[in-house]
Recover the amino acids of this structure.
């Protein structure tokens, strides 16, 4: 029996094009000005220092850190410091109405149905927890953050690491075999499965011929009671 479902965001609940064509360019465009204006705020300063440490340049000045962050964005690096800063910048975009968080039409009805069945719902994304809450708080469907019991980001580990899923299972407090992870990325599902989780691969386009996970094309095809 599935007690809790943990879902990825990018490519799973939300179109990858929303992230790559709207969120990422917005953060890149506003990064330098945002950091110059807010660099001394505690949460910004902490994220900047995290980036310095990750880059092995603990004494880097602001201009150098901006260059490092630009390189990280070019690499699509899953940097915890970068993700935190992107989330802070996106907050301004959500608040001023520059965009709303994209949701596929099949997502919310399924989440509501599972919640009504007593299944706890969680999010695990490489984007910061703050960014996750913004996307669902300012989604195309309005504020749906009440659906989720918790959020996880790379502070628990990278999404292709088995230990991350063991940590999440411990924090949720349910046996791994009663947890279901939804993602579009085969390697993430491989790690979850190795940790003992149930898995389903969401593929909005072509099938993944190398995957060993059950594949569906939208949330309406998922029935937790049959897993």
């Amino acid at each position: 029996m599935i007690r809790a479902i943990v879902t990825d965001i990018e490519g799973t609940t939300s179109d990858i094009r929303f992230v790559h064509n709207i969120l990422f360019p917005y953060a890149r465009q506003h990064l330098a000005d945002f950091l110059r204006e807010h660099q001394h705020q505690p949460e910004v300063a902490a994220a900047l220092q995290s980036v310095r440490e990750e880059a092995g340049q603990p004494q880097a000045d602001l201009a150098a850190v901006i260059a490092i962050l630009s390189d990280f964005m070019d690499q699509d690096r899953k940097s915890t410091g970068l993700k935190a800063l992107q989330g802070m910048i996106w907050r301004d975009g959500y608040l001023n109405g520059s965009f709303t968080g994209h949701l596929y039409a099949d997502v919310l009805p399924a989440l509501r149905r599972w919640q009504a069945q007593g299944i706890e719902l969680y999010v695990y994304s490489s984007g910061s927890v703050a960014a996750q809450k913004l996307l669902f708080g300012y989604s195309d469907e309005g504020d749906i953050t009440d659906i989720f019991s918790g959020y996880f980001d790379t502070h628990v580990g990278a999404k292709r690491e088995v230990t991350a899923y063991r940590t999440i299972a411990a924090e949720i407090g349910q046996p791994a075999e009663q947890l279901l992870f939804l993602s579009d990325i085969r390697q993430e599902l491989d790690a979850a499965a190795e940790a003992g989780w149930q898995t389903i691969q969401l593929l909005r386009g072509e099938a993944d011929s190398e995957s060993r996970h059950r594949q569906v094309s939208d949330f309406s095809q998922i029935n937790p009671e049959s897993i």
